[in-house]
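Quick note —
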Amino acid sequence: MLNFVFRKIESKKWMVISLLVGNLLMIAIAAASPMYSQAVLQRTLTRSLSNYYVEHSAYPGLMIVRGAYAAAGGRKEADFEKIGQAARMVEELTAELDVPAVFMVTQYYKGNVKAAHEVAVDGRKNELTLRIAAFTDQKEHLSIVNGDMCAGELDGNTFDVMVNERTFVDQNLMLGEVLDLSLKDASGEPYRIRIAGIFENREPQDIYWVAEPTAWRDVCLMDEGLFRELFANEERLDMGFNAEWYASLDYLAMRGDQVERYLGVLERYLKAFEEMGYKSNAVYFKSTMENFVLQAQKLNATILILQMPIFVLLAAFIFMVSRQMLEMEQNEIAVYKSRGADKGQIVLVYLLQSLIISVLGLAGGIPLGVLMCRLLGASNSFLEFVKRAALPVEIGAKVWMAAGAAAAFSICTMVLPVIRFANVNIVAHKRGKNRKSRNPWWQKGFLDVILLGVSLYGLYQYYEQKEYLAQKVLEGASLDPLLYFCSSLFMVGAGLFVLRIFPLLVRLIFLIGKMWWPTSLYASFLRIIRTKSNQGFLMVFLILTLSMGIFNAQAARTINANAEERIRYADGADLVLQEVWKDNSAMLNNMAGAPGGGAGQTQAELTYEEPDFGKYQTMEGIESLTKVFIDKKVNVSVEGGKVSNAMLMGIHTREFGETAWFKESLLSVHWYEYLNAISQNARAILVSSNFRQKYGYEVGDVLTYINGSGDAMRGIIYGFVDYWPCYSPVTRVKGSDGLYTEKDNFLIVAHLSQLQSSWGVSPYQVWIKAEDSSQFIYDYAEESGTQYALFQDAAAELIELKNDPIFQGTNGILTIGFICVLLLCITGFLIYWILSIQSRTLQFGIFRAMGMSMGEILTMLVNEQLFITGVSIAAGILVGILTSRLFIPLIQIAYTSADQMIPLEIVSARGDYVRLFVIIGLAILICMFILGWLISKIKISQALKLGED
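Predicted structure written out below.
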């Protein structure tokens, strides 16, 4: 039977290749999904933990269990047992997490220990409060700068300790001196300590030390073994001591696909520690991982949602090609049936064929999935790739499971049509061939109308719930997958609807020119009308390819452009800087604390020392710059009270207009008109539109606003603006119930020179429009050592956005989805025309024998191409544009953020369409060359002889 199957595959190699293409793409996409998800999330986790290290100056892999103690009291033995149990549990926790530990450290200490100098020295306190501590393996991580390392033995009742330089100075200690402690041995004699040496860190950056030893002010380190012998043992439970356990895990070895397991293990152990009474614990990476889980869920949901339409199209393609093959082999199946083959044997033949194709697809699909994963990681926008560090791709169990499931699904799709064809014998087959062609089942059932209706109803429902959807996304939920299905259903329904009306359109054109059409066109129109059922396969995929390409291009461009505009609008300019200003606040505080200082302070004012602004004016790489004063705590006097926390912006109108970034479409007139208006009057101000709506002010009214020092200014309203650079009309605030509410923000734009002349010079921001790269400001800051209280770089934020896994995955999947559909379209295009030309070889020979020239035959084919391919392309463009206009505004909701300042809008770029149509045009051109080559190989004379035979 296998030989029969292989011969069968060889005889229908073009159809089998088409099925193999469909299988390769389906398996590759299914495998690429877990590959990409795991790889990008692994990179995201590592980067997030590394950022934690930078932002918090703390090792992100650290776990601390603290508060274990044994004290004098009724439960001394139980408390001591808990200490041993806690130590074992820390080791078990580390082992169960299965992350290598860089260091495992135990700290023992006794706090608030009273110490007295044996020798009184003038000018220093006789009694001190110290902390006696010991760390495991501490000698390997410190070095002695003066004196000796502490000994591990007790000399009478005296033991050695080491201190850092700060403790040595602050506590007025001397090397070699002995202090009496409030701690006593079993006989009641006090212990003594001898200051043996001064130590420092052996390495400047050593994660062994959780708290930097150089900052200690009262810690005395003793030998760890001696500490346990004297204080941390069952014989001296009445002494009491504390213990802390530190586990520094290698955060670079933490795996993104294990995060949920990590959190589960941590939750279980932390709960156990709390039940033991040890509640003051800390896991530095826990919050990072909790945020990571939410991000991972959203990414996986987004990938699945975006891939589902592609899977549906691939399944439809495989089903259609399988059905087309079965229709070509229906005569053979009927013969097998009539000669005694049962239904099971016929199904088994096609099952083996499908299994072979799927195994080949599995062998090639995994490497292709790796390539797709690389493309996903390099995606910057739709059909746009950049050079980016390769993702750490791994082929694990999830990848094989996904690929195997896709292969199994493909086998079912290929075998499913066989069940119906396996029931037809030779008599039924001949009767079926003589029946008049019927409309396909989807036309009879009005599937196209149903799909359009369902998608439009879903669209209506989503528009009704738009605010609710945005709220859910802000709370961290992913968007409803049915929303993406609605857009796909609309494209499929529209494509089928075009297929329904296409024969009517062709028939109408044919009837209009029926009396004048030349022979070639007449025959061409008849061919199109009579074979309408065969064209559906090609036309649907052409329409879906173009419509999906346009939809994906606009979706990607809209998502990326809106996110980019949000960043630029929120920042206000390419670079926003504010240096650390010096002031006289320390002097004022001293005056307030001095006797009689309160009265003197009323005469003093807070003044600032303005940094040199001129250095920026001469700096290379700056196209323009301006000073911008922003105060977000201004009070505004209104009738019946005041408005608190309004935002005041002081600007120089011309420089501000040349430097700030602003989207012109946000206002009804160009924003320069507002700048020009207030430039005419020093007292002129602009006010946010929501202020007019809420308090009823109009142009020409006078507004009084007051700063935090109580200084008042009066301004004349010259205009109202809905939006302004870096101004957010509303702030979304998350309440205790987890819901977001909107709070109005009010804006006043005034002249900076007027504010400074009345209120004095206060810290302002420097807004810069860069000529090209912003690297110059980093170089300057590094060379000069300038410190910035505020530093915003829009270019850096955009790079971070492009590397965000959600945006990266969205762009990549939209691009790969289009490329896959394009490959299906090319394959379907070639299948249709190759089979069509091969089946009409005899017909072409007859036409030539009847006197039709080769040019007229080519005219026939060109006319068919024009009506089948041309109409499909035009319909695809129309459906794609219509789908984009209807559905993209809702898909954007998935990328809404709590700090969304400006409205989202659909963005289309001519370059996207150029790339799209160039790729599709090249694909069709290549297909045309292949068809031309096939036509040139046709031997008409042989076809005629074959017909005579």
